[in-house]
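Hi all, long-time lurker, first post. I run a small reading group and we've been trying to get comfortable going from sequence to structure in the token notation. Rather than ask abstract questions, I figured I'd post a concrete chain and ask someone more experienced to write out its structure so we can walk through it together at our next meeting. Sequence below, copied exactly:
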Amino acid sequence: MAISNAARLNRSDVDLQRAYYADTAEKYDDLHVAEDGEHSLALQFMISALERFGIRSILDIGSGTGRALIGIREKAPNVSTIGVEPSSQLRRIGHSKGLLETQLVDGDGMNLAFADRSFDLVCEFGALHHIPDPSRAVAEMLRVADKAVFILDCNNFGQGRAVSRLIKQSINAVGLWPLADLIKTKGKGYTISDGDGLAYSYSVFNDYKQISKRCQAVHILNTTGAGSNLYRTASHVALLGIKRQSD
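-- Answer (accepted) --
Happy to help. Here is the structure in token form:
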């Protein structure tokens, strides 16, 4: 029984999500940016791979206040970047940091206003679990990317204690996780927290199949402590997909 997040999203959900970012814009970086966190590690990993794969242009999805854009600018100033962020309040903070209005722009990750293969690399850092249809957003990332995609996000099946993880993984194995999640969230399909706002249950591994079909190589890195099986033990993972040039 497949129940998509997109089908469950209504106008009140959108309003709740936008209201959270409007209310927390001034303290957004304090809430979400840690120098030694998984986002920082993933960004450093991605930047280290830019030269190897000849990356000269990057599109960042769900840029927030532009932390990834600024990090790329500092470490790889010759790479051109554009960030898409739907929250005007977060964009305003990013612009106050020195990002141009043409660098941090309004946009929808599920409907990117760019032509096929417009950017060498398309990335996202913790945005997909805030998007109602993350698989659609990943498809858009793959469409717009010419050489590679980079994802840093949650793996809900690797979160929690061992018993909790095993239960979630077992439910997912028989295809019932969407229904279980709907029951768990009392029909809403999302949770709301002070630290993360409105979020959907998401795992990067949900989109591994569609990424691997469009990529000649996929590299996965755990950004928090984990065992050898990242699906089973890693709460957050980074994924670098190198696209097939014939795609």
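A couple of things your group might point at:
The two ends are 31 Å apart (CA to CA).
Residues 11-24 form the longest helix (14 residues).
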